[in-house]
Specification:
- This protein is mainly α.
- It has one domain: Bromodomain-like (Up-down Bundle), CATH 1.20.1550.
- It is built from 6 helices and no strands.
- Helix 3 packs antiparallel against helix 4, helix 3 runs antiparallel to helix 6 and helix 4 packs antiparallel against helix 5.
């Protein structure tokens, strides 16, 4: 049962991670490039800005639940960098959740640095998996940071999933500030 559920979630989370990268690129394009005064584009921008904290919190919550599923139910032992990524992700659930509850749109100020730190760690971790014949900083001998529990579509690993999550959260948290730059 656990193997079947794990295999199903591997596919679902892998697809979601690819979709997250695509959404990040679309959102950046919508906000950076001057678009025609299209109602769909304007409505999308307004929804993203109004609910950016809610969307970021939802994504961080799902990622946290997913990581706990993999370690506690599937039995995947996290490596050192996986722990660093969790250290950056788990507080986002609390910080952004509190921001939602107290209706404070400034919670992005606390969430954004964690998201960027997590993004940088996952970029490094993912490249370690892609190019495993290198020395890494502080990787334990218990669980290899270059090993993969998941490899979907030939490139989606757990660090890739985390990378896509941190990227989308970072983009979402920056949206109100991108708008102010224009």
């Amino acid at each position: 049962m656990n193997e079947t559920l794990t295999d199903l979630l591997n596919k679902v989370f892998s697809i979601l991670s690819i979709v997250s990268i695509i959404f990040s690129l679309i959102i950046i394009t919508i906000f950076i490039i001057r678009s025609p005064k299209n109602n769909l584009v304007l409505n999308t921008k307004n929804i993203l800005i109004e609910y950016n904290i809610l969307f970021a919190w939802t994504i961080a919550s799902l990622a946290s639940i997913g990581s706990l599923f993999y370690s506690e139910i599937s039995g995947f032992v996290p490596c050192t960098y996986c722990w660093y990524e969790r250290i950056a992700m788990y507080p986002l659930v609390i910080i952004l959740g509190v921001g939602l509850i107290i209706k404070n749109n400034q919670s992005w100020l606390f969430g954004f640095p964690l998201s960027v730190i997590g993004l940088l760690i996952t970029i490094y971790h993912y490249q370690l998996q892609i190019f495993p014949n290198q020395n890494s900083f502080s990787c334990s001998t218990e669980v290899s940071c270059t090993g993969t529990w998941i490899m979907e579509f030939g490139f989606v690993t757990m660090p890739f999933m985390a990378l896509s999550t941190f990227l989308l959260i970072s983009v979402l948290l920056l949206l109100p500030n991108i708008k102010k730059l224009k």
